[in-house]
Design a protein that fits this description.
Oligomer: single chain
Strand content: over 45%
Number of domains: 1
Largest sheet: 6 strands, antiparallel
Structural class: alpha+beta
Distance between the termini: 42 Å
CATH class: Mainly Beta
Number of helices: 1
Strand order of the largest sheet: 1-2-6-5-4-3
Length: about 100
């Protein structure tokens, strides 16, 4: 599996986003998409978001919708918050 060595974003009019250097899509719904990229975790926020193209072998992703925020997060902090959320959910389910 060959990955792009460069991470790039191309946002057109807050309606169309292309990302290169994508390793994994962790979570997605119409308001939030969380990706692991070559440069760390990237959170996409907006309305009516939907993935129109995803090729992890080439590391490409295209998303359409209305974007309100693009936010990079430190990998450890983002993963830690995900694992804490998962633990809390599991603890509530086991009560």
């Amino acid at each position: 599996m060959e990955k792009n060595s460069e991470h790039q974003l191309r946002l057109v009019g807050r309606r169309h986003l292309e990302v290169e250097g994508v390793r994994h899509v962790d979570r997605f719904d119409e308001h939030y998409i969380m990706l692991e990229t070559d440069l760390g975790v990237l959170a996409l926020k907006g309305e009516g978001l939907h993935i129109t193209r995803l090729n992890l072998d080439q590391g490409n992703l295209a998303v359409e919708g209305y974007f309100t925020a693009l936010e990079y997060r430190e990998e450890k902090a983002a993963r830690g918050s995900l694992s804490k959320m998962g633990r809390g959910f599991l603890q509530r389910m086991l009560r």
